[in-house]
Design brief:
The chain is of the alpha/beta class and about 325 residues long. The chain folds into three domains: about 1-90, Translation factors (Elongation Factor Tu (Ef-tu), domain 3, Beta Barrel); about 105-220, 3-Layer(aba) Sandwich (Rossmann fold); about 235-315, Beta-grasp domain (Ubiquitin-like (UB roll)). Helix content is about 20%, strand content about 30%. The chain has seven helices and 18 strands. The protein has helices at about 75-80, 115-130, 150, 175-180, 195-205, 250-260, 295-300; strands at about 1-15, 15-25, 35-40, 45-50, 60-65, 90, 105-110, 130-140, 160-165, 185-190, 215-220, 235, 245, 275-280, 285, 300, 310, 315. The protein has a six-stranded antiparallel sheet, covered by helices on one side. The chain has a five-stranded parallel sheet with strand order 9-8-7-10-11, with helices on both faces. InterPro entries: 2Fe-2S_ferredoxin-like_sf, 2Fe-2S_ferredoxin-type, 2Fe2S_fd_BS, Beta-grasp_dom_sf, DmmA-like_N, FAD-bd_FR_type, FNR_nucleotide-bd, MRET. It holds the Pfam family Fer2. Its EC number is 1.-.-.-.
Length: about 325
């Protein structure tokens, strides 16, 4: 973890503010690559993950952008209301679970709303490399679309297509057409609201895209709230044999913490992978947005912040 200073706060679009971060002591910040994110400890709120959207060659600053969510649980509200120029924040070093596949001959970038933050960084990196790519940016309206001027002033502006929900029907995003142009040498990158990403990934899979060609990053997962059919189960710690019961209304992380067993967590929504834990026995009920379908099917790891068990017991590598 490190402390940074907010050197600039700027409204990028309706409901979206960007925040420029610099190290507190003036030193160079840790390097990052396109697609990276940082954990931000929101003042008076939770830890949230925000993608870095500035040039990765810059070492004097990080740039993030935050959409104010009407259903905020303290993250976006805290950033918009309680974070101002001159304030300090505690952040993590950058991590990248959404990296570019540089072996791809062509890249297709799809951004939905605030999901543009990692996508625009990818587009700029691909442009520097002279790589073949196409970008589609969908948003509800022009007024709520961040970084439009930045994109239109770029050298790759003619490779970007904007799609507005309130615009002319002819310019709206036609996923079937966009995704039908793929071949095995094309990689797809998508980021945005869950509904948008589910639609993109569902259409891509239906059109025969291979999982190795699909890359995505969710900003939020499903809330870890109990379902009507949730039952109790047990987890066993492989190192000691200790068995801990998980009630229908608590997560594995909560139950382990109450029993004095701490697991490192961050998002608590199955998005970031911080709490990923190895499973030795049992059948997992995956509820995360982090693991791929193939990784979930392997049944050898899970996110205890939100996922549960289909079997009476899970044996964990703890």
């Amino acid at each position: 973890m490190m402390k940074v200073v907010i050197t600039r706060k700027r409204q990028e679009a309706q409901g979206i503010f960007s925040f420029e971060l610099a190290s507190e002591d003036g030193r160079a910040l840790p390097a990052f690559s396109a697609g990276s994110h940082i954990d931000v400890h929101v003042p008076g709120g939770p830890v949230r993950q925000y993608s870095l959207c500035n040039d990765p060659t810059e070492t004097h600053r990080y740039l993030i952008a935050v959409l104010r969510d009407p259903a905020s649980r303290g993250g976006s509200d805290g950033m918009h209301e309680r974070v101002h120029e001159g304030n300090t924040l505690e952040i993590s070093a950058p991590r990248n679970h959404f990296a570019l596949a540089h072996e791809a001959r062509r890249s297709l970038l799809l951004a939905g709303g605030i999901g543009v933050t990692p996508i625009v960084c990818m587009a700029e990196r691909l442009a520097v490399l002279g790589a073949d790519f196409e970008m589609h940016y969908a948003a509800r309206s022009r007024e709520g679309t961040a970084f439009v001027d930045r994109i239109q002033a770029s050298d790759f502006a003619n490779q970007v297509h904007f799609h507005f929900d309130d615009g002319d029907p002819g310019q709206k995003l036609d996923l079937g057409t966009v995704l039908s142009k793929a071949d095995i040498d094309t990689h797809l990158y998508v980021c945005g609201p869950k509904g948008f990403m589910d639609a993109v990934l569902g259409m891509a899979r239906a059109q025969g895209w291979g999982e190795e060609q699909l890359h995505w990053e969710f900003f939020a997962g499903a809330d870890a709230v109990p379902r009507a059919d949730d039952g109790s189960f047990e987890v066993q710690l492989a190192s000691s044999g200790r068995v801990i019961s998980i009630a229908p209304d608590e997560t594995v992380v909560q139950a382990l913490s109450n029993a004095g067993v701490e697991i490192m967590v961050s998002c608590e929504q199955g998005v970031c992978g911080t709490c990923l834990t190895r499973v030795l026995q049992g059948e997992v009920d995956h509820r995360d947005a982090y693991l791929t379908p193939e990784e979930q099917a392997a049944n050898d790891q899970f996110t205890p912040c939100c996922s549960r068990s289909k079997s009476a017991r899970l044996v964990l590598d703890l």
